[in-house]
Amino acid sequence: MEYVETKFVTFCQPPNELVLKSGFKLGPITIAYETYGQLNKDKSNAILVFHALTGDAHAAGFHKDVKKPGWWDDMIGPGKAFDTNKYFIISSNVLGGCKGTTGPSSINPKTEKPYGLSFPMVTIEDMVAAQKLLVEYLGIKKLLCVAGGSMGGLQAIIWAVNYPDLMNSCILVATNTRHTAQQIALHEVARQAIMSDPDWQNGDYYGKSIPVRGLSLSRMIGHITYMSEQSMEEKFGRKLIGKEKLGYDFSHDFEVENYLKYRAGNFVQRFDANSYLYLSKTLDYFDLAADYNGDLTKAFASAKCSFLVISFTSDWLYPSYQSKQMVKALKANDLDVSDIEINSSYGHDAFLVEVEGQSKLISHYLARIEKQNTHGKR
Amino acid sequence: MENDNQKTIRPDHKIILQFIEPKSRVLDLGCGDGTLLSLLTQQKECQGRGIEIDEQSIYQCIAKGITVSHGNINTGLSDFSDKRFDYVILNESLQQVLHPQKVILEALRVGKKVIVGIPNFCHIRARLQIFFEGRVPVTKELPYEWYDTPNLRFLSLKDFRYFCKNNGIKILREQGLAENKTVYFRPNLFADMGLYLLER
């Protein structure tokens, strides 16, 4: 079996730092990335995929000695939706993340200590600007496609709007163009959970005890928002865990309680609390039409590529109507856009687990884009 | 593709293909599995786009390389700017919408020309059934019982002509169709369906 490896590349060495949207100059910037498949001769088969809030560069295949494959392994691989026999897939960890790309847990070369809260606020635009450096470094002039779900979708949108000439198509899954009050509120509860943990210490916890309780609580909240009422009912119902009767105490009774605890326990081992704060805040700040008086049509005016927009009926975190608003704006710009609302009970998680329908859509869509690309027509 | 075989093309699709100029921009409302749009793309080099409510049909459209939007006809039309398309097609879908007048006028806003295909509820077989049996007709072309029909509107070719006249819509072409044949003589009596090319 062939293993995949995360690679690293560093850009923006001072004095050539990346100027962030806030004006802050950040450098050096290391980007963790993986690639799957082969780049063809004319470098026209490259697809950039983006991870969601807590994902990483490891999208597909297996790392040596690790049982679990990458987060989108169901969709990326030989014969899969993103077919690595045909396409060259690139996945990188976002700026502000904690899985190899520069973020709050990285060492600040000026102080030789982790950045912590001195790390600048990075926006989706900044993440995308860093990804562009990676794409250029790989020698790719034009991407066949950019694709992402949830927070990954926001990155794909910014690619389409900021670099319209560098791509042919854009696949957006379970995403939106701005966070609503409800979405911001849910994130804020998660952030407060972290920040009220005494171990958080204003973000200066590296090398000490990490804010386990706060971070696991924020992950529990997250998991609830990723599922639907129906999917939780189907998965857990009121099933009890390892007992016949209710305990009438505050030990765990229900399977769902155990599930949340288990998922949270895994999460704190692999994710940095400060990254969670930064990335969730970045999501909340995102509002594509903010600079256009809320006019989404104008916000998409610079986009040129073809779009495929996928949403799910039971996703209440990134509800379908938000995708439909986006589709409306894309159509108003006379862009080529296909969209579908897939009937699913999995809630927001559907973008990771509804593999069959999405695979059909994406593989056929990419085949058309590739054909149009080789025939040089749109 | 098997559709390339002219013999397998549905007769109503054949007529629609005749109505449409090559290299046009076409919107098919209720495009189903994308068969017609696929033909228009291949045979007429049209730039096609569909709107379809059924999820499974969307997969089939995408598999054919069709650009398609998942939604209903009413909201689907409002997304587009004036005269965005050369043709808007409403084939066998008009009788199933709640506000057909609104939809046709909206289609005429979005498209320079509109093609409408309607089933003829006053075919002679239907008339005979009403007359002799005293029951709402169920025929091969209109196979539904009153309680399970998807059709909300019941009209004849004549009704449609009156509708166009009253709404200031020009009928550029009318084509009656029965079985696989075009009907020239008394289409309101002998045609199962009528196809119209409209303009405002």
How would you sum up this structure, described in words?
The complex is a heterodimer of chains A (378) and B (200). With 378 residues, chain A is an alpha/beta fold. Chain A folds into 2 domains: 7-178 and 287-375, Rossmann fold; 184-281, Orthogonal Bundle (Rna Polymerase Sigma Factor, Chain: A), CATH 1.10.1740.110. Chain A is 35% helix and 15% strand. Chain A contains 11 helices and 14 strands. In chain A, helix 3 packs antiparallel against helix 4 (212-226) and helix 4 packs across helix 6. Chain B has 200 residues and is of the alpha/beta class. Chain B has a single domain (2-119, 157-199), classed as Vaccinia Virus protein VP39 (Rossmann fold). Helices cover 34% and strands 24% of the residues of chain B. Chain B has helices at 11-19, 35-44, 55-63, 73-78, 100-110, 124-133, 157-166, 187-190; strands at 25-29, 47-52, 68-70, 85-91, 111-119, 170-178, 181-183, 193-199. An 8-stranded mixed beta sheet of chain B has the order 3-2-1-4-5-8-6-7, with helices on both faces. The model of chain B has no long low-confidence stretch (mean pLDDT 93). The chains are: A alpha/beta (378), B alpha/beta (200). The A-B interface holds A 306, 308, 324, 327-328, 331-332, 334, 336-343, 357, 360-361, 364-365, 367-368, 371 and B 55, 58-59, 61-63, 65-71, 79-81, 84.
What's the gist of this structure?
The complex is a heterodimer of chains A (378) and B (200). With 378 residues, chain A is an alpha/beta fold.
Which series of helices and strands of chain B comes N to C?
HEHEHEHEHEHHEEHE
**What is the rounded Rg of chain B?**
17 Å
In the predicted model, the low-confidence regions of chain B spanning at least 5 consecutive residues are none
Residue stretches of chain A low in confidence (pLDDT < 50, at least 5 long) are none
